[in-house]
Structure formats: C-alpha cells, structure tokens
TrEMBL record:
It comes from Elysia chlorotica. InterPro entries: LDL_receptor-like_sf, LDLR_class-A_CS, LDrepeatLR_classA_rpt, Leu-rich_rpt, Leu-rich_rpt_typical-subtyp, LRR_dom_sf, SLRP. This is Uncharacterized protein. It comes from the Eukaryota. Pfam families: LRR_8.
Length: 270
C-alpha cells in the first residue's frame, strides 16, 4: 500500500521481484507478496498490515470455512470477527449482510431496542406505551416489567395498528380501562400476566377483534362478568391459571367458539 505521494516506499519491495519463495505456512499474493496462511480469507482491521496489499487473499473464498466460532462468514466470501457484526460499519463488502437485521435503539429517548419487527422495551421504568416509528413495521411490542398505565386514547393511536403481539406482563395493572382494545383489530396475542387485575367486565373487549391467545396467569381475578369474552370468537388459548376464582358463572365463557386450551389451574373453584 503506497504511503509516500511518489509511491517510492513501494518501488523496490521483494513482492515486486518474486525473489523470495513463500514458505509452506505462507500464501503468495497476486502481487508476489508472502503472507501468513492465517490471513487467507480473513478480513480485519489489520488486513492492510498483515494481509495482501492488493487484497488478493480475500478472493476465491466461497468455499472457505471459518476456523473459529468467533468468526462470521460473509456470504460466499471471507470471514470477519464476530465483534465486527452489527458494529455500524459494513465489512461484508459484497452483501453488507453483517449489518442486516441488527438491533438498534428506538422508541422515545432511545430506551428500546428494535430488530426484525420486534420492539423490546422491557424493564425500562416506562409509565406509558412508547411511540412507534411506523416506518419500522413493528408487529411485536414487548413491555414486560414496567409501570405502564393503559389509556384508551393511547391504544387507539395509529402507530399501534399493526401490532400483533403485545406483552404487558408485570406492569402492576389494576384495571383495563373501557375502550382500550376497541381498535386493536390486528392483535392476535396479548399477555396481561402477573399484574394486579381482580375483575374483568364485558367492556374489556366490547368489539370483535382477532385475538387468538390471551394470557392472564398470576393476577388476582375474583370475578369475570358474563359476556366478557363474547367478542373473542377467534380465541384458541385462554390462560386464567393462578387467580382467585371460586365460581364459574353461566355465560362466563360465552363466545369462545374456537377455544382449544382453557387453563383454570391454581384457582379455588368448587
């Protein structure tokens, strides 16, 4: 690699004259330079110093196997250290794959991490559902271990329209305000487990939505108003384990036409 402006530092080097034969532990570069075999098909920050100046040690690497689990194989190309994956700089120069599908900071004040349609905001001390950038196509929202208070106005916001999976586990919720789930028509899985809910009324799900899984385990539910689940015709799994239920009332499970799993373990039903 020429460092002098007149290229004089590269004019009389041995790799130009082919005078020295490479050893069995060395690889001959296209320009005649000899490098250690360990540098073949390996690209790192020291490649300019330890590899071929003309980068010929990084070609014809399609079938090369990375010698260590600490390395990442660029598609049909050379290996890089795992530490260079998702570091904000593309090292797989042909495919840029080392920077694809990487986690990145997102949400208000960058307290969440996003990756492949999942927004993870667990255990961040949040009191409200963070706003989602609609361009990120978020479908899975993880809000476990916060102090979020559900608000119908927030749940109706456009940025939540495409969320299909919502985890509100352990948020100390004591109630579900009326109208919270009026517009969540794409929601298929909802976890409200390990909160402090003690009742469910028939205003919880007042309109038909496509919910398929509802997890409520570990609350303190004592009463479920008949008709609460009447609009959940697509629900296949309902987990009501570990509550304070003692009586199953008539029409308590009315509307559950598709249910295949109903868990009532850990209650006090006579």
């Amino acid at each position: 690699f020429p460092d002098c402006l007149d290229v004089s530092d590269e004019g009389f080097c041995e790799y130009h004259t082919f005078q020295r034969a490479c050893t069995d532990q060395e690889f001959r570069c296209s320009n005649g330079q000899c490098i250690d075999q360990s540098q073949v098909c390996f690209m790192d920050k020291d490649s300019r110093r330890l590899g071929c100046i003309d980068n010929s040690h990084l070609v014809n690497c399609s079938d090369h196997q990375c010698p260590s689990e600490d390395m990442y194989k660029c598609p049909k190309s050379y290996c890089i250290n795992n530490s260079r994956v998702c570091d904000g700089f593309p090292d797989c120069r042909q495919s840029l794959e080392d920077e694809d599908s990487c986690e990145f900071k997102c949400g208000e004040n960058d307290v969440c991490t996003c990756r492949d349609g999942t927004m993870n905001c667990e255990d961040q001390g949040l009191t409200d559902i963070p706003k989602i950038n609609v361009k990120q196509h978020t479908t899975k929202l993880l809000l476990k271990d916060n102090r979020i208070r559900l608000r119908a106005e927030r749940m109706k916001a456009e940025d939540l329209y495409h969320v299909t999976y919502l985890d509100l586990t352990n948020n100390s919720l004591v109630e579900i305000p009326a109208g919270c789930f009026n517009t969540t028509v794409t929601l298929t899985s909802l976890s409200l487990s390990y909160n402090k809910l003690w009742y469910l009324d028939n205003g919880t799900f007042p309109v038909p939505i496509g919910l398929k899984q509802l997890h409520l385990t570990g609350n303190m539910i004592q009463y479920i108003e008949p008709g609460t689940f009447e609009n959940l015709n697509d629900l296949t799994a309902l987990d009501l384990s570990n509550q304070e239920l003692s009586v199953v009332y008539k029409n308590m499970f009315k509307g559950l036409k598709s249910i295949t799993v109903l868990n009532l373990a850990g209650n006090h039903i006579n």
